[in-house]
């Protein structure tokens, strides 16, 4: 099993969710996060004071899938989240040792 | 006694009361979320502290029988002889109603200053300074202009408190920013306002309450109240538009905070003029207030003092402009009890206005400076650096503004 974590632009969340739904990904966790990469920050001005706000708002999407589905899920996210402009985000893939469904106690892929 | 006037003044008084919670929202939205409660508290609790001062000796010092043109005596302490019959200031309403109306002005004035030392002042220091300042600066200056003191006798026009309230608090704010010092991280960290919706709501409540402030200052429900009401609206709207126009030219974007700030600048500037000028001059006063106050706020960045919420730029500069503009535009066509200004053939009025403003500036600055030093020696002014980082809500009040 793998955990796939994607940092994406907030406005593509809806299409990423639809795309993952359509290939049968059954669960997602979404978090509002802030951070910076190559895009760096943006300027905000309050009355006379100008600030560089370094952390950009992004969405972190997390999902867990069987290892053999890694490529198709990654491709799906890539296609749905790519605008071609700086700040599109990143995808991280982690090996996962265990998944447990709290309600039934099932373990492994049946618990995904 | 007139029941219509009394009803009008009771409503106007309640409207002015609402300005202080409005100010709490206006200021509260501008600070970081860790300081939202402490900032709102510094406005809100003035509703309590100043009410007590007012009954015990405040009304008497401000409006009691004149002593040498500088202060009212203690003859009316504990509101002795202030009752249900009309007093000397308003012939058609109970004396207590006039006193209640004036109390609301005394409450909001020290609350305005708190924007200057926001996000770093100890609550105990704030309380002591507020008691001292209200007693030794607000009550005397109020007496000079409205309580039978020397500025009123000189002929200074201040319809609803441009000098008494806005120059006075704006100058005290400058002294506060200088004596209390900069916030930790000033110009290094972004001090983003944590909730501009609160600030815009606060500006809206201030605008609404200000109709009571300005129209109510006529003290009767008549023509002058109507003039003041109308002028309040047009000057404020014009100032909001002027501010965002200046921003649009300067930084390329009109901001919501600019609209709210401009509105307050317009309210401040029209305050001394409201019942003395016509509607077209009011429009001009508002437009220029938006430009002047925006310029003053930009100048602060260059001068480098940390007046956190721009009390100097908006209330000090807006109040000064309003006081002088009254000397330019005042016309007895709109208020026979007023005077004509420079543009209506009476240049002397402008001079009188300048004298009034200068007196308030010098007196308020010197006294505020001394009182801040006294407060610093007694309770201290600033919270410890660690508490400033953690935020005043937790360290001064053991509370959190927002819980997830």
Automatic annotation (TrEMBL), chain A:
Family: Belongs to the P(II) protein family.
Gene3D superfamilies reported for this sequence: 3.30.70.120
Keywords, in A-Z order: Nucleotide-binding, Phosphoprotein, Transcription, Transcription regulation
Residues modified as O-UMP-tyrosine: 51
An MF annotation (GO) of this entry: enzyme regulator activity
GO CC annotation, single: cytosol
A Pfam family: P-II
Keyword match Nucleotide-binding: yes
InterPro entries: N-reg_PII (IPR002187), N-reg_PII-like_a/b (IPR011322), N-reg_PII/ATP_PRibTrfase_C (IPR015867), N-reg_PII_CS (IPR017918), N-reg_PII_urydylation_site (IPR002332)
GO-annotated biological processes: regulation of nitrogen utilization
Keyword Nucleus: no
UniProt-recorded name of the protein: P-II family nitrogen regulator
Subunit structure: Homotrimer.
UniProtKB/TrEMBL annotation, chain B:
GO cellular component, as recorded: plasma membrane
UniProt GO molecular function: ammonium channel activity
Predominant subcellular localization, coarse grouping: membrane
Cited SUPFAM superfamilies: Ammonium transporter (SSF111352)
Superkingdom, taxonomy of origin: Bacteria
Domain annotation Ammonium transporter AmtB-like: ranges: 7-402
Record field: transmembrane: 6-31, 43-62, 96-118, 125-147, 159-181, 193-213, 219-244, 256-274, 280-299, 311-330, 350-372
Membrane topology: Multi-pass membrane protein
Assigned protein family: Belongs to the ammonia transporter channel (TC 1.A.11.2) family.
Name under which the protein is recorded: Ammonium transporter
Organism from which the protein derives: Desulfacinum infernum
């Amino acid at each position: 099993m793998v955990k796939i974590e994607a940092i994406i632009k907030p406005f593509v969340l809806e299409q990423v969710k639809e795309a993952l739904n359509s290939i049968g990904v059954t669960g997602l966790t979404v978090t509002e996060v802030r951070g910076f990469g190559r895009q760096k920050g943006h300027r905000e001005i309050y009355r006379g004071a100008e600030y560089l706000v370094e952390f950009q708002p992004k969405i972190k999407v997390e999902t867990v899938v069987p290892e053999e589905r890694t490529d198709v899920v990654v491709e799906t996210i890539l296609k749905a989240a790519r605008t071609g402009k700086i700040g599109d985000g990143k995808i991280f893939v982690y090996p996962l040792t265990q998944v447990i469904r709290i309600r039934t106690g099932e373990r492994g892929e049946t618990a995904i | 006694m007139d029941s219509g006037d009394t009803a009008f003044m009771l409503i106007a008084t309640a409207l002015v009361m609402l300005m202080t919670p409005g100010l709490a929202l206006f200021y509260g939205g501008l600070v970081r979320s860790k300081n939202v409660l402490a900032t709102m508290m510094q406005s809100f609790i003035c509703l309590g502290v100043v009410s007590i001062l007012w009954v015990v000796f405040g009304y008497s010092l401000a409006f009691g029988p004149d002593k040498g043109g500088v202060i009212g005596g203690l003859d009316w302490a504990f509101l002795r002889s202030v009752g249900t019959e009309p007093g000397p200031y308003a012939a058609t309403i109970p004396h207590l109603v006039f006193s209640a109306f004036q109390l609301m002005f005394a409450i909001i004035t020290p609350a305005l200053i708190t924007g200057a030392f926001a996000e770093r002042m100890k609550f105990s220091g704030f309380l002591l300074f507020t008691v001292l300042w209200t007693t030794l600066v607000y009550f005397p200056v109020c007496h000079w202009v409205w309580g039978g003191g020397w500025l009123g006798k000189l002929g200074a026009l201040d319809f609803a408190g441009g000098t008494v309230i806005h120059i006075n608090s704006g100058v005290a704010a400058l002294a506060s920013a200088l004596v209390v010092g900069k916030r930790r991280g000033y110009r290094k960290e972004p001090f983003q306002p944590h909730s501009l919706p609160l600030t815009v709501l606060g500006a809206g409540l201030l605008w609404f309450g200000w109709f009571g402030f300005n129209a109510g200052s006529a003290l009767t429900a008549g023509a002058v109240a109507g003039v003041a009401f109308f002028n309040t609206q047009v000057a404020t709207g014009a100032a909001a538009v002027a501010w965002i126009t200046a921003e649009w030219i300067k930084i390329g974007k009109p901001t919501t905070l600019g609209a709210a700030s401009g509105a307050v600048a317009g309210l401040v500037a029209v305050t001394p003029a409201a019942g003395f000028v016509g509607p077209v001059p009011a429009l001009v006063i508002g437009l220029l207030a938006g430009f002047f106050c925006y310029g003053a706020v930009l100048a602060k960045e260059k001068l480098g003092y940390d007046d956190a919420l721009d009390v100097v730029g908006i209330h000090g500069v807006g109040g000064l402009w309003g006081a002088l503009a009254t000397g330019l535009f005042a016309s007895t066509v709109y208020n026979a009890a007023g005077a004509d200004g420079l543009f209506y053939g009476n240049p002397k009025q402008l001079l009188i206005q300048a004298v009034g403003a200068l007196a308030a500036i010098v007196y308020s600055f010197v006294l505020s400076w001394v009182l801040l030093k006294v407060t610093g020696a007694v309770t201290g002014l600033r919270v410890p650096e660690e508490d400033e980082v953690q935020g005043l809500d937790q360290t001064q009040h053991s509370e959190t503004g927002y819980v997830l």
